[in-house]
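User: quick one
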Amino acid sequence: MKVNEDRFLKDLHDLREFGAAGVGKGVVRPAFSKDDVAARKWLATRMSEAGLTPHVDPVGNLFGLADGPSLLLGSHSDSQPEGGWLDGALGVIAALEVARASHEASGPKVSVVSFEDEEGRFGVTTGSAVWSGQLPLEEADELTDHAGVTFSAARACFAEMAGDFVDPTRFSGFIEMHIEQGPVLDTANEQIGVVSDIVGIRDMRITCDGQQNHAGTTPMHLRQDAFQALSAFNTAINTRFRNVVTPTTVWTIGHVTLHPNASSIVPGRATFSMQWRDAEVDRLDRLNTIIRETASEIAEKTGLRVRFGPMLGLDPVAMDMRLRTALEQAAKATAPEKWRVMPSGALHDATNVARLMPVAMLFVPSINGISHAFEEDTAEPDLVAGLHVLARAVSNLT
Ligand SMILES: [Zn+2]
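Assistant: Done. Structure below.
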């Protein structure tokens, strides 16, 4: 098969016109917005022209189906409230071009998908989560966005054109091409990342209860200051994690509430989010143990009480070896010395799809590692290199 670089780049720019905003190549195309729905209608037309049968499912996932059994390629075409033109869109348009080129050359059967609400206006990777059975539709319908709109009300915009959920057994596997959304490839001046695994994530809310008191009259040695406990906890885990983590492990205290949050009051309560990500379940568990032990120790030492909320998370997903090897061989041929194997620190639809079929992913660089921002971009030769790796891998697999 022979992919057409110009046609691929033109489609990518045409898709950006739906919700084009901000500086550079910014896009505002949140799930189920007018621009998202219009973009999906346009994509459905492009799928028809490429010899595929468009199919929208009850949650707005758009498939372009090849006749009979096929390999599935794609990503998502919704964006963050302020997003870039490539996050998700690249994987969808590259899939479209490979399916089209393969159809023209009577090559292997390739289907295309654009999942809905990957960016989590309602849940997390909502469209693929429902399709894969990770999230029951009845539960998804109850989810609300920041404005209080329910998922069930939002997805009604597809009611007229929606059919059933697509039977996943018609697909032999799924490959998602995506921008890296980090600095690794750009910094190393490389063009392709073949993903080894998508990291797992754990997220827990921790609450420290101390004693709220007067900030002028309470001597330091008599205080039960919840913020001081949080501060000591943060310092301690940064030290204790050191013997357990790898260079790709990450952890974040991203949301903190102090009560009552006033200058002249010793804070009586600190509630904070503790999130950590790693490619191995075992390490995620060891970090969990350290977090609990450290928080309990500090609470005991300072006379505070600690409470742990429910732990949320998704397990790490290893990429399928057969699909991954096809991508590695294609990367070697397309970008010799300019590719690597790497984990994905971001969640993707592929995590959900892995419940249904073998999956693999490839990355192209993000300039300066920037994503989820209007400035997000990738050099054109890197976009094209990614397209060729995807097309080669599909050919290698059949
Ligand atoms: Zn994405």
